[in-house]
Write a structure and sequence with these properties.
This protein is mainly alpha-helical. It is about 50% helix and about 10% strand. The chain is built from 7 helices and 4 strands, in the order ββββααααααα. The protein has a two-stranded antiparallel sheet. A two-stranded antiparallel sheet has the order 3-4. β1 (about 5-15) and β2 form a beta hairpin. α2 (about 100-115) runs antiparallel to α3 and α3 (about 120-140) runs antiparallel to α4. The longest helix has 28 residues, at about 145-175. It starts with 6 loop residues before the first strand and ends with a helix.
Length: about 240
């Protein structure tokens, strides 16, 4: 099965310019995760769904993750229209599937949109997180023999994961209720895994301890925290042996 068989063109209406457009979307039930990375990034066999997570209006340049696409205030609409739409002149080729390069462009527009509308830390953090994950998958798709490209993609991955971590930490301190669609424990699991990935081990230990001592954390969350704790202990053990 090719990637084009797993996606389809879905129609959306842009809340900024009111244009209808089609965006490639992953078919539900066609992909299943085959495990996760330390920072909870899902792994898939035949496709990287992250390439299709950003909706981009080809008429005006407004771009957003689907969960935030319609969540724009009147003031944000005006700012986006004046600062993005009025100068937008890009053209996008109609395709049956997206390359990593295509997806990178879409995420860049999503970042610009977040900056323009002064999005919440949680929204900006989630876009940066998915962008960092996208670069990881992009990196894994190229040969390590291509040292320059591999190093460049690794650098971009780390850059956006660092920005994501900073934004999500701020969101944890300033926003209430579910953040990025996650409850508090799930969100802390994400932060714990991300802090391990970024080698912020003091933060990792604090977050892991909070999950393990929580009275409301599920068995699954505590198992994830124990796995991260074991991973950290192995790193410390190896460092001592060296």
């Amino acid at each position: 099965m090719s990637e084009s068989d797993i996606v389809f063109k879905k129609t959306y209406k842009c809340p900024i310019c009111d244009s209808s457009f089609k965006n490639l979307t992953v078919k539900q039930g066609k992909v299943r995760p085959e495990g996760t990375d330390l920072d909870l990034k899902p792994k898939y066999k035949n496709i990287e769904p992250l390439k299709y997570d950003v909706l981009l209006c080809p008429m005006c340049g407004y771009a957003s993750l689907e969960r935030y696409f319609l969540r724009v205030s009147q003031k944000q609409k005006e700012d986006i229209y004046n600062k993005i739409c009025n100068i937008f002149n890009s053209r996008f080729e109609d395709k049956d599937e997206l390359t990593f390069e295509d997806a990178v462009i879409r995420y860049k527009f999503a970042i610009i949109t977040c900056q323009t509308k002064m999005a919440k830390e949680s929204e900006t953090g989630l876009v940066c997180l998915k962008f960092g994950w996208l670069y990881r998958s992009y990196k894994e798709s190229v040969s390590e023999d291509d040292e320059n490209l591999y190093a460049q993609l690794s650098e971009r991955e780390k850059f956006f994961l660092e920005k994501a971590y900073a934004c999500l930490l701020k969101a944890r301190e300033t926003e209430h209720g579910e953040i990025c669609g996650m409850d508090e424990i799930t969100f802390d699991c994400l932060l714990a895994g991300l802090s391990v990935e970024l080698e912020k081990f003091d933060d990792s230990k604090r977050l892991i301890s909070g999950i393990l001592t929580s009275r409301v954390a599920s068995k699954r969350a505590k198992d994830r925290a124990r796995d991260l704790k074991d991973f950290l202990e192995n790193i410390e053990k190896n460092d001592e042996e060296e």
